Amino acid sequence: MPISSRGFASTSGDYGGVLCFLALALASPLSASPLRGVSPRDEKYFMGPVIACRDGAATFPRDRLNDGFCDCPDGTDEPGTSACPESKFYCRNMGDAPRFLFSSRVNDHICDCCDGSDEYESGAPCPNTCHKDTNPSENSTVAVNPESNDLDDLDTQSRNTRIDLENLIKNIRGLRAVTAMQMIVCAIVMVAFCCHHYRHNRIRRRKYILSR
């Protein structure tokens, strides 16, 4: 039975819609890309529509994750931006040891991750140097499987070392500030005491002279 031109046009239009849908489906990624600044082990924590701050202070909707505004005091919601200095940015460093760094160092024009992922918006030229001193073939298992036990161990050691070092630096700076404040207070007290003692001696001397 012959197909009318109208029916053919309708059929071809349906085929065109199907082809467009298939093209979009093939062009889209098969899985969601990793969250910026989030370690593979923590990705499940951020999958829900409402996410809790790790310190339990508040919750925030998922669309506020990495939006450039600090909703959690501990920086849970901003691992991939510099909005919360207390947050931690995860460098994947494929082929090398992953590491954590404070999010205050994200987009500061200094390449801290060997893969350059911490400077995604600053415009700083950060070439990937993760294989600079190693043979890429020797690290192929690391590149293929970033969630392996070896990487988890390196992740934990690197994170603990980095956090301990930066916390030590913070404590030293805080101690210096407290010491300087104490010295200033002591100097003020000593000056006030000397002035009071000098004034008191003058008054006593004047009374002694007048009494004679």
Backbone shape:
elongated
Largest sheet: 2 strands, antiparallel
Order of helices and strands: HEEEEHH
What's the overall average pLDDT, rounded? 74
Please give the number of β-strands: 4
Beta content comes to 5-15%
Q: Within the largest sheet, what's the order of strands?
A: 1-2
Walk me through the structure.
- The structure is a single chain.
- The chain is elongated and about 90 Å long.
- The strands form two sheets. It has a two-stranded antiparallel sheet with strand order 1-2.
- The protein is 43% helix and 7% strand.
- The chain has helices at residues 5-27, 140-144, 149-211; strands at 50-52, 59-61, 88-91, 99-102.
- It has a domain at 40-173.
- A hairpin with a 6-residue loop joins strand 1 and strand 2 (59-61).
Question: Layout of helices and strands, plus pairs?
Answer:
Elements: H1 5-27, E1 50-52, E2 59-61, E3 88-91, E4 99-102, H2 140-144, H3 149-211
Antiparallel strand pairs: 1-2, 3-4
Explain briefly what this protein structure is.
43% of the residues lie in helices and 7% in strands. It is mostly helical and 212 residues long.
